[in-house]
Design a protein that fits this description.
With 304 residues, the chain is α+β, with helices and mostly antiparallel strands. It has 2 domains: 61 residues; 197 residues, Alpha carbonic anhydrase (Carbonic Anhydrase II, Roll), CATH 3.10.200.10. The protein has 8 helices and 16 strands. Strands 2, 3, 4, 5, 6, 7, 10, 11, 12, 13, 14, 15 and 16 form a 13-stranded mixed sheet that branches. Strands 1-8-9 form a 3-stranded mixed sheet, with no helix packed on it. α1 runs antiparallel to α2 and α2 crosses α3.
Length: 304
């Protein structure tokens, strides 16, 4: 096979795999030189081959994961995102089921500015160690929990279903958003949801539970699970469970309302490396702040 044919076959293979990067193209150029093609036996010519392969592989097909994701979004009229014509301002237009994303009066997230102190029941977490599945659902990294972990508030009991992340934090405090927030989603026997929001700020050390869960994050629309790793999600909670609360909604389509929000005042920390690891996949996955309308944010008073 001559030089031109080898270049053509290599470029075709690269086009067929959208996960290949420029570094992969350059690697193939070096491989061609080791296969006895005199055209690539000098450093300068290898660089030229790298450029040629990059152009050939990119032509006529998506050559990056981001481009592949955008192509999928354009092919699915209901595929919502956080930017452009499929971003939050258009969610209600994309599907009639998303009407509340525009017309709802109890939408989340919100900015916590004016609050009203009220004596409320403390949060009681009955979380247990268990196996955790990690899902990259195309919008965030989500961790699904085995049954058996509960949140109790007075006489109300909710089972923990999953927790996931947004960066920056969706909720703001006095106009300030944290680098990240974790949302712990619970459901009671009546099907009502309660979500605990835990702010994350940048610190020097890795967050231990995140380090265990994010050793290798799944690709988009994939799930991973370590059958030998038992983890307790309570390791992502601060020691102080003081909270603000109000009724709100899901922060993603269909923006369903009637969600009980419990926003913890005390943040936890993760490392800059962990924050960058998440943002490499999801640089921004936070819905804009929504109006309060007639709602009041309660500052839970009690002995924590």
């Amino acid at each position: 096979m001559d030089t031109v044919e080898k270049l053509g076959h290599t470029a075709h293979a690269l086009r067929e795999n959208p996960d290949y990067t420029v570094s992969d193209w350059c690697f193939r150029a070096v491989r061609l030189s080791s296969e006895g093609l005199p055209l690539f036996d000098t450093h300068s010519m290898r660089l030229l081959a790298c450029l040629v392969l990059s152009i050939l592989a990119a032509s006529g097909s998506a050559a990056t994961p981001h481009a592949a994701k955008e192509a999928h979004a354009s092919a699915d009229p209901k595929h919502w995102t956080y930017e452009g014509g499929t971003g939050p301002g258009y969610w209600a237009d994309m599907d009639p089921a998303n009407a509340l994303c525009r017309s709802g009066q109890q939408q989340s997230p919100i900015d916590i500015s004016v609050t009203y102190g009220q004596k409320l029941e403390p949060l009681s977490l009955r979380y247990l160690p268990g196996l955790i599945s990690t899902v990259n659902n195309g919008h965030t990294i989500q961790h699904n929990i085995e049954p058996g972990s509960f949140l109790e508030i007075g006489g109300d009991r909710y089972q923990l279903l999953q927790f996931h992340f947004h960066s920056p934090s969706e909720e703001a405090v006095a106009g300030r958003r944290y680098p990240m927030v974790a949302h712990f989603v619970h459901k009671n026997d009546a099907g009502q949801l309660a979500v605990i929001a835990v702010f994350l700020k940048e610190g020097k050390e890795d967050q231990r539970l995140i380090r265990s869960l994010w050793k290798k994050l799944p690709a988009a629309n994939e799930t991973t699970r370590d059958e030998h790793l038992m983890l307790n999600p309570q390791a992502l909670m601060p020691g102080n469970l003081a909270y603000w609360t109000l009724m709100g909604s899901l922060t993603t389509p269909p923006c369903s309302e009637g969600v009980r929000w419990l926003i913890l005042k005390t943040p936890i920390t993760l490392s800059a490396r962990q924050l960058a690891q998440f943002r490499k996949i999801y640089p921004m996955n936070a819905r804009p702040i929504q109006p309060l309308h007639q709602r009041a944010i309660l500052d839970a008073q009690g002995s924590w």
